[in-house]
Model the fold of this input.
Amino acid sequence: MSRVSENSSIHAIKHSVGKTKSKVEDLQIKGSNMKRIQKPSDDPIGNVDLLQIRSKNIDAQQYLRNLSFAQTNLGFTETVLEELTDILTKAKELAIGQASDIYNPEVRQSVSKEIHQLRLQALALANKRNGNRYLFAGQKLLTKPFDNDGKYLGDKSKIFIEINKDVFIPINLTGEELFVDKESRPNVRLVLPKNPEEIPHQEEIQLPNRSPASAAEVGVESVRSNIFDELSSLENALLTNNPDIVQNLLEQLDRSIDRVIAHRTQIGALSNNISNAENNIEKMKLLNEEYKTKVEDADVTELFSNLQKEQNILKATYQASGTLMNQQLMDFLR
Done:
């Protein structure tokens, strides 16, 4: 016959009470925050899913910040393109009006001053900044893209930003692709003398296929014209009262306007792409939260049912332990 010592009984009671109290405390903690998984051992597979969801949500927040930055940069760019379109359209309207012979030299000189201001406005737009970053300098963000002569000082590289996993979009236009013609074309070159009194009149300046002029250099060269050169040529042609050169510049202005409009369309498409990406990320976050709720949140009915059951078990354990531990030797001698 085996004998059970008092120490064995005490240890058994302590173990039983401690185990039941641990279960009750665990259920109480789960009931306080309504989370089924408190530690990885509660559900190892579910815990892995939760970690993946949290990682995706962190990535989504960064993607949203990237999209916000991209949208801001493209918004600035679109505003500049809109203003540039208005400038070129205004210059073309003035050029069309001055391409005929009905205006006198004084009128054309007055219009040339307006063209000069339009060129300054276009140059200011080309050197527009978003914060301390130039919009059209390529990746040379802190370098002023154009000098006063309209020479491009930036690079040809675009800035790409990640808006979703392995999805990158450009968020800028380089000054070269926006302000400079893609192809080399014959360009009318007119160089005025330094002394304004020596500026020739219309009858003294002819196009290159006619007799050359002596007081001003007129020529056609194969170059990649830019918007600033076109406006400067238009200004000089008006100063020299030469409608033929003004007429030739209309085609170049048309190409520049078409190029700017094409880039505005491209910026609009990128903005739509960003809006769609934002919507997709928000939908993904909602789906992740829904799945996270299913994995992590506790079933209220099951939780409190288990809590009530464990509390009853703990109460019964206390009662049984009290009865056992209060037994004395005299109780068995009666």
